[in-house]
Amino acid sequence: MDLRTRQLLEKQEPEILLALIDNLRSENESLRAAVQEQERVRAKQSQCSLNIEEQVKYLRRKLFGRSKEIRLDASDRLRDKSQNDVLLFSQSAFPCPELSRQSTNPLKSLLDEKVIYHKATDEELLEEARVRGVESPSADQWEELEGVHDKVIKIGIIETRYEIQKHLKCKYKLKREFNPHSDKEVIVTARGPEGLLPGMNYTTEFVASVVADKYISHLPLERQTRRMASLGLKGIKTSTLSRHCALAAASLEPMQGQILVELKNGDTALHLDETPWKIQNKDQKDGFMWVVSSRLASYYEFNESRSGRVIRETLADYEGPVLTDGFSGYSALDDPDLKITQGYCWVHARRNFIDLEKHDESVKPILDDIDELFAVERKARDFTELIELRQSLSRPITERLKQRLLDEYPHSRPGSQKRKGIEYLLKRWDGFTLFLAEPRLPLSNNEAERTIRHAVMGRKNYYGAATHSGARTAATLFTIIETCKKNELDPRTFLLMALKMIAKGETPPTPLEYARQTRQ
After folding, report:
1. Could you tell me which of 465, 463, 502, 461 has the C-alpha nearest to residue 480?
2. Are 321 and 269 in contact (CB under 8 A)?
3. Looking at the domain assignment, is residue 16 inside a domain?
4. Which of 97, 269, 270, 458 has the lowest tally of Cβ within 10 angstroms?
5. Would you place residue 34 in the very low, low, confident or very high pLDDT band (cuts 50, 70, 90)?
């Protein structure tokens, strides 16, 4: 306290004392505000540090860890293939009876069977007689037991073989007695082999094999040319094989359009997804492969843009439910001019919490509720039962889960993975719970992700496509192949059948039509 202040206090003047008290109070408030500001800044820095640490751990797991969605204590929830098969949305519309009876043992598969007899040589029979002490041993001392054999089963392989086929088209001359009024000979030629193009030097089987090896087995064209050379077919260029793929896709393009129509007219919800697609040509932009799928079929479409207008134009005349992830581009479907209702994938919502369970026990009840929703789905044996179960069991679970999310929200750090997961669900709650009113809508978009996975595997092997035209070729062929799988048809066999029909001038059925015709 300075001298001036001490003197003023000694005089004990009330006005002065009050002024000093006000001054001290004001100074105290300023100091308290400064301390609170420092604490706020420190808390924010600490929160940012925690968020950064959480994000680093998340990214490290994302980049270097194994991708999995199984919870730590979920061993009792694991499902085998038979349990997956009971999910209504995973069942083929026209299941193949042969596949349902087929054993997982490769020795009991649907392969052609070849019987090979092994007879003992004279030397072997002579040795057997000698070993057994037979007098004057010889092979003639043995007689074969007819119909008695020891059986050994082996899996064999018939190696790929290329050949040059010379097709000689015979000519026929009209006999003179049947052509008396003309001095000219009438000569006709037999029809030659059918081909996708007139005068084509490659058989339809060759084209189908190239397409199947690339788009089913993911064997790049460069590797195919090397394999052909090793088997005697030398000098084939990748550009030649690329033209074969483009020709096959152009021939099958009408079928691709018909498959999209079948999807739109189907009685199930449509699953939507998209993935980046690399374009090797530096003069052309990279693009995206869009997919529309259901248990009936799969449709692929390449486009340079990831804008929602792409899928909006594709589904412009569709009426019904769709299932998507939270990508903002799908908001283009929320248009009063469209008759589309949009649901969201619960698996995507679940992923926001699955990695947090290791160090944050508060997310365990959230995950338990979501897992319980999927458990209800597995109980249903038909859609009538599914509707009843969703109302009696699933609806109370969703109501409990929403309240749990609202209660946990204030306790989550802003910007944290937990808060992002809660906000992801609450902002889209109407779409997440649409399945309660729409029985055609499943809980997860795994259908689309499984469909697009095959294309992604191919993309990794041959680095996308050389051009936009090549990407559209891939989209057409992936559409046919994946639709075959949905209908439990062998894609190689179907591709060859369809291309042969086209070569004859006939219109092949779609995989769904073919399955319906052959299995009903």
Report:
1. 502
2. yes
3. no
4. 97
5. confident
CA dihedral 438, 439, 445, 447 (to 10 degrees): -140
CA trace torsion 375, 379, 382, 385 (10° rounding)? -100
d(CA 275, CA 88): 26
Which residue's structure tokens are 């007695």? 177
| pLDDT per residue as tens digits for the range 282-299 | 999 999 999 999 999 999
Task: Please check whether residue 384 lies inside any domain of the structure.
Answer: yes
Q: Which residues contact 517 (CB under 8 A, 6 or more apart)?
A: 509
Spatial neighbors of 468 by CB under 8 A, at least 6 apart, are: 279, 281, 284, 287, 302, 304
Tell me if 362 is assigned to some domain. yes
Per-position DSSP letters for 182-224, written without gaps between them: -SS--EEE------SSTT-SS-HHHHHHHHHHHHTS---HHHH
Structural domains of the chain, count: 1
Question: pLDDT tens digits for 213-222?
Answer: 999 999 999 9
Tokens matching residue 215: 């788009």
* Surface-to-core class of residue 191, CB atoms within 10 Å of its CB (0-12 exposed, 13-18 middle, 19+ buried): exposed
Range of the domain at 408: 346-444
Q: Cα separation of 293 and 447, whole Å?
A: 7
